[in-house]
Structures are given as structure tokens and as C-alpha cells.
Specification:
The chain is of the alpha/beta class. The chain has helices at 11-22, 71-74, 84-98, 165-173, 216-230, 244-250, 269-272, 275-299, and strands at 3-8, 36-37, 52-58, 61-70, 102-106, 109-111, 122-125, 127-132, 153-154, 196-198, 202-208, 236-241, 256-265. The chain is built from eight helices and 13 strands.
Length: 305
């Protein structure tokens, strides 16, 4: 493995992730400052350049290159930045041009546990399920992403051993005296324990063709029901949002992981999500991503991804 492509959904997620990845006090000691950095940017910026390029040294091997891109940077101006179709228009070309050995999709998400809050935690997985959130609105260009893989379970194409790195990431995040964690509690309904967790059975459930935040709770419930009917036994829904699945179907077979900083509880979007909630959770995602990148550099360039 020589190159990793990190794809972050929107500008307001990209900025706190990069803040964490470049913070000299909080980023891993093994993660150097990026060789290329294009931040901060406001939400109206459009660019073809990556937001950051890192080069992680490896003993006896070539450095591991990490390219960080923001989907919103690539989208046309004036288009709804939640448009699944617009994301699908720009992603395949960008992904192909970077020719990475591994892709990591980063997007804030809700955690589908009706009983316990996971807000502020970070989830890592490799399976995908895509739900069409507006199947009767395909005449609307904002709701017109149609693909044969919608409604089907898409199994991970990443080696199972990679998911054990979630334990390494979590241990390194709990690096303060007494095992205290670097992750920051978000203001609204934080999880009782802030952790990074991952497994080969974890699945990102994504609803496409959804641009109205007010419909999230209703559509999330529909997506979970459809996932339960399609998923193999033993596989779990651990993240619900709108972008990981679009990134997945934009690839041409490259190994791909999803990383979801959790912002809200199932059916509590309006209650939990604020700009501050989003920032803190995305920042936590950046802290976990930094540790994951270092763990992947240690994993070895010749091992199967």
C-alpha cells in the first residue's frame, strides 16, 4: 500500500477533521504536518486541488502518501451540496485520478441504537447498504441517483485483519493518565464512554436522494427496515447518513473503509444536531483518522488491504 485517499463529505466536516490532523498537541507524534495544505476554506470554495497531502515515513519502505479531498470542493456552484446525484457525477473521476490503494470515506452520522447515545464516538467499518430515500421523486434532478446496487448489501472488500486496527486506534486515543481519552464530549447527549470502534461486520447504511434534513428521522427508519431485510446474518447497522454509499459506488473496486463520527441519536436529529455538535464530532473523527493513518502506515505496504 503506497497511497490512501481520504474523502470527506462537506466543508464543515473537512475543516474540523483537518484541524485535528494538523494540531501539534493532539495529532499523533508519527503524523507529520502535511506537505500540501489548503485550509481554511469557506463553504463557497470550489477547487480541484486536495485539501491536504501527507507523507508518512515508514522504516525500510517508501513513505505512505495520504491525499485528503472534500466532495463539496468538487461540486458545481449553485447545486444543493446534499445532492447525491451531483456527488456521484464528480466522485468517480476524482477517485480514478488519485489511483489510491485504499479509500477512506469520512462523513458524520447517526448511530442506530434506540437505547443508548453514541454521540461523540467514532465508527469504522467496510460494508455498505444504500436506501433510496425518495424513490417517487426521480424527476427532480436533486433526487435522481439511480443505481442497480441501491437496495442491496455490499460486502466489505477490505482484509478482515484491517479492522483490528480499530482497537489500536482506540487504545492510542485513551492516552492520558488513567486512560482518559482525547475525544471531546459533544454538547448534546454525549456517549457515556467516548471510543473508536470497528469490526468487519459493521455496516454504513446510507440514504440517497435526500436533501431535506427535516426528513432524516423518517427516512432513517425506512432505511434500517430495508437493511434488516437484506443484510446477511451477523451484520449490523452502525452508521446512518447520506454519503458513504455514494463514495462506495463511485469506486472501481478499490478497497474502501468508512469512518463515521457520530453526531446524533436515532430519531433525534433535530434535538441533537447543532453546528457545535457537528464540529466537535467531526473533530473527534479527525483525531481517530490520524491514529488510523499511523496504524495503517505501520501495517505494512506489502500486506493485504
Amino acid at each position: 500500500m503506497k497511497k490512501i485517499l481520504v474523502i470527506i463529505n462537506k466543508n464543515w466536516e473537512t475543516e474540523p477533521v483537518l484541524n485535528a490532523l494538523t494540531n501539534p498537541k493532539l495529532r499523533p507524534a508519527a503524523l507529520p504536518f502535511p506537505e500540501v495544505i489548503n485550509t481554511p476554506c469557506d463553504g463557497d470554495n470550489r477547487m480541484s486541488q486536495p485539501r491536504a497531502v501527507f507523507s508518512l515515513p515508514r522504516e525500510g519502505e517508501e513513505p505512505l502518501q495520504v491525499v485528503v479531498r472534500c466532495i463539496e470542493d468538487l461540486m458545481a456552484t449553485g447545486v444543493n451540496t446534499s445532492s447525491s446525484l451531483e456527488k456521484y457525477k464528480v466522485l468517480p473521476q476524482a477517485i480514478a485520478a488519485d489511483a489510491a490503494d485504499l479509500i477512506i470515506s469520512v462523513s458524520t452520522a447517526n448511530y442506530p441504537d434506540p437505547a443508548v447515545t453514541h454521540n461523540g464516538t467514532v465508527v469504522l467499518g467496510g460494508n455498505f447498504f444504500i436506501h433510496d430515500g425518495n424513490p417517487d421523486s426521480h424527476t427532480d434532478p436533486e433526487h435522481n441517483l439511480i443505481d442497480d446496487r441501491v437496495g442491496t448489501f455490499i460486502a466489505s472488500n477490505v482484509a478482515p485483519a484491517v479492522f483490528s486496527l480499530a482497537e489500536t486506534v482506540n487504545a492510542r486515543l485513551h492516552c492520558y493518565p488513567g486512560g482518559a481519552c482525547k475525544l471531546v464530549p459533544p454538547p448534546n447527549f454525549p456517549a457515556p464512554q467516548l471510543v473508536c470502534e470497528g469490526a468487519s461486520t459493521f455496516t454504513a447504511v446510507g440514504s440517497v436522494n435526500v436533501t431535506d434534513y427535516g426528513s432524516y428521522d423518517t427516512i432513517d427508519a425506512q432505511a434500517l427496515k430495508e437493511f434488516a431485510a437484506a443484510a446477511p446474518e451477523g451484520y449490523t447497522a452502525n452508521s446512518i447518513e447520506t454519503t458513504h454509499g455514494v463514495v462506495k459506488i463511485s469506486t472501481s473496486g478499490e478497497p474502501i473503509l468508512f469512518l463515521s463520527p457520530i453526531t446524533d441519536r436515532l430519531n433525534h436529529f433535530n434535538e441533537d444536531v447543532t453546528d457545535t455538535q457537528n464540529y466537535v464530532s467531526a473533530f473527534n473523527g479527525g483525531l481517530a483518522l490520524g491514529e488510523l493513518l499511523c496504524a495503517l502506515a505501520e501495517y505494512g505496504g506489502e500486506r493485504q488491504i
